[in-house]
Amino acid sequence: MRKEVIYSMKGPFRDELRVMGYKFGEGEKAACILGAMRGNEIQQMYVCSQIIKVLKELESKGAINSNNEIMVIPTINQYSINIGKRFWPGDETDINRMFPGDRCGEATERIAAGILEKTQGYSYGIQFASFYRPGDFVPHIRMMETGFQSPSLANLFGMPYVVTRKPMPYDTTTLNYNWQLLKTNAFSVYTKETDEIDEASAKQAVAAVLRFLTRMGLVKYNVHSGYIASVIAEEDLMPILAQRAGIYRRYKQAGEEVARGEKLAEILDPSEGNVLEEITSPIEGVIFFSHKSPLVNQNEIVYEIIKRFHT
E strands of 234-274, at which residues? Predict the structure, then answer.
């Protein structure tokens, strides 16, 4: 393993920001794996640390196949992690909305430019991402439809679902989108949690990455075959919105099967405690996303359900 500073930037009031890359093997740029971009992405950083742990062991056994370089970057935003803020502490900007970046721009633009420079050219780019809504997902691979996406490659991770989505204008400033434009096969991996560590989905994510690296001929590793993924389009997910605001009490979790009319959650009056709304499932299916925060706003998405198709 080679530990390198792949980007550094002086801070006005704190120690220098040093983004560390952990490299395994030598030769062609095969795979780049990136974790936390935001300060609350603890699960994403943790998963990368576990991948590094396994790759160190594999390298010591000669199980990194020749002429392949794998780089893992656990975090690029330890400034925010250290003070518990989701976005860049100086100006509340999101690094993952700054790509391709600007070497002469603001701090987050300079970081994005430096990271893209060091991570471009890899055949495969794997990012452990988080979503803007507070809640839990079924573990899945997400891909943007840029014309360069490959759902068949995403299937090799062996995760339960592969989700494709049409990019919005703000998606063009993400790492995933810019990786694809630079001819890197880019995948965003979502586990169950973000600001908490969930061991079960973390292990599932580590196994999925090692399964992919093995199937692409980059490492030698024995891992179970995983799932035959269901490929779904994001617009096919059925969103369920809260009609009232208040204290949120959920009864169903991501990954659970639900029947039509089954109770999913309740919204309570925050002062008097009475039930303002009972949320039920309009269809039969599997819960893909479930809201987690104890408070909910009116018209906020609280569930997304994968509709079950009968034959």
Answer: 238-241, 246-250, 257-258, 263-268
